[in-house]
Amino acid sequence: MQDRVNVVTLGGGSGQSTLLVALGRLPYARVTAIVTPFDSGGSSRKLRDQYDVLPYGDIQRCIFALSPYEHVRDIFSRRLDLPEVQAPYHTGGNLLLSALEQDFRRTMPVPDARRLAIRALEQMFQVRGHVYPAALRYTDLCARFEDGALATHEQEVDEYIQAGHRPECVRLAESVPANEDALRAIVQADILTISPGSWYTSIIPSMLPEGIREALQESRAPIVWVVNLLTEGVEMAAWTGATFVHELMQLTSRAPAALLVNSTVLELPGSYRGERKTPLSQKLFRSYVPAVVRYPLWLDAETPRHDPDQLACALGLLLPTLLP
After folding, report:
1. Helix extents (H) in the chain
2. CB 206 within 8 A of CB 212
3. Model confidence over 130-167: pLDDT tens digits?
4. Hey, which residues does 29 pair with through a beta bridge?
5. How many CB atoms lie within 10 A of CB 28?
6. d(CA 302, CA 201)
7. What is the dihedral of CA 294, 298, 304, 306, to 10 degrees?
8. Is the pTM of this model over 0.90?
9. Could you state, in order of their start, the residue ranges of all structural domains in the chain?
């Protein structure tokens, strides 16, 4: 195996940041995160609408996930109540990136200002790797559902899915070009990883900007999918293992080389049942891809999320087997 391995992740949300924490513990991994910039909830939407900045919620999570300063990560991920500056309940990371973008925009075009704002925060927190938004322009994520309902932004898409609507089509409100840095990272990757996270509002959106799918097809890196612990919505509860693989192939136009699947299913906390989420059975996944790796990844009984320590162990065993 080569000394340094370019590992690129695609996705968004807390699942991608957990994956980045795990990858950051592999000494040979040079990590790049490609993150959906189409968040429309809470702090990100308020700052976007008020200051015309990129929605930085998922991006700042990924930056702090790759920082060695874990205590700082916790501080800047907290929501701050600052009514005196009319910015209630924003995270420190969102505020910092928004302020940096505004400052850089005084002397350079908007895409460059956004690129430099992210790079500046990476340098402040000595990030071991890079974080690139999939696009440097924002637009809204939209969805059409089988019953004719329409959702016009990312948070609304989530709400409709949780209410039991079946998605028929997920797209962007307008076409946006992919970030050139993201395209370059995909083509130069040694391993591509699809992070756990919402299929409809994190995974699919990270691949919707123009050029992402073509770069995935051009890349020769094997694709590893870290599969979710839970299904989402009524539709996904009926998916088979073959359905999961088919959907990923439809999205990337390539077959995955490996799936990393949780092997220990715990009882789901009641709060998640109301969101129509169910534990994903490892029995779904048999021989649909060259390698299906099963590992105990569920964090604990109260938190149905991936355990970063266990995830690091599993990836440490799997990734070297996929390299020449």
Report:
1. 13-23, 42-51, 57-65, 70-77, 92-104, 110-124, 154-162, 180-188, 204-206, 212-218, 233-237, 241-252, 270-273, 308-318
2. yes
3. 999 999 999 999 999 999 999 999 989 998 988 888 89
4. 5
5. 14
6. 24
7. -80
8. yes
9. 39-132
